[in-house]
Amino acid sequence: MANERHYSPTDRLLLQADAALRTLLPFNGKPYRPSPAQGEPETQLDAGKARHVAGLMRINHTGEVCAQALYQGQALTARLPQVRSAMEQAANEEVDHLAWCEQRIRELDSRTSLLNPLFYGLSFGIGAAAGLVSDRVSLGFVAATEDQVCKHLDDHLGQLPEEDRKSRAILEQMRIDERQHAATALEAGGLRFPAPVKFGMSLLSKVMTKTTYRI
Ligand SMILES: [Fe+2]
Ligand SMILES: [Fe+2]
């Protein structure tokens, strides 16, 4: 946005606080695209299965909170306007993912993770710090994160009960989108991270998945 340079530091802080709250409070807007689950029949899952699916969807929801934070942190520190615009569509699609996951969790009579503010803060800091190093590092970070998310989605799609077509439809569309986000970030100049960095990121994501499945 060309007029963004006119914002004072206080304006930016307020805009950021607003973005953070909109991510962390229950979603009350309209997703850009309707949920892919809409066209799928609801099935009655037994209590154990419903609890398991809700746990998986809670992990995915927190992953989307992290994605929001990462993009918002990056937008704050990205130097090149074309980096922001390249990632803008991806960021909009993350809003969809956030809304779809949250809606599904509610349908399963469960709640989003209590740890979301913590993971939001962590991811925002990482996104902003990566953006301070360089745009290439921050885009590389997005690409590596999306790769990680795709791995989770593959794993979760394998664990979903066959009959839960609603959750499946959501995760399948997310997987298509996340692959595209990773490709977009690399095309925009993102660095391909070396294996040790990716390993560190996968450890961090293990902590996230282990905790948010329950909490
Ligand atoms: Fe996403
Ligand atoms: Fe994504």
Which ligands accompany this protein?
fe (ii) ion
How far apart, in Å, are the first and last alpha carbons?
A: 38 Å
- So how many helices? 7
SSE topology string: HHHHHHH
Mean pLDDT: 85
Rounded radius of gyration (Å): 17 Å
Task: Determine the fraction of residues in helical runs and give it as a percent range.
Answer: over 70%
Describe the protein in words.
With 215 residues, this protein is mainly α. Helices cover 73% and strands 0% of the residues. The chain contains seven helices and no strands. Helix 2 (47-77) packs across helix 7. The N and C termini lie far apart (38 Å). One fe (ii) ion is lined by residues 67, 90, 94, 146, 177-178, 181.
Please outline what is shown here.
With 215 residues, the protein is mainly α. The chain contains 7 helices and no strands.
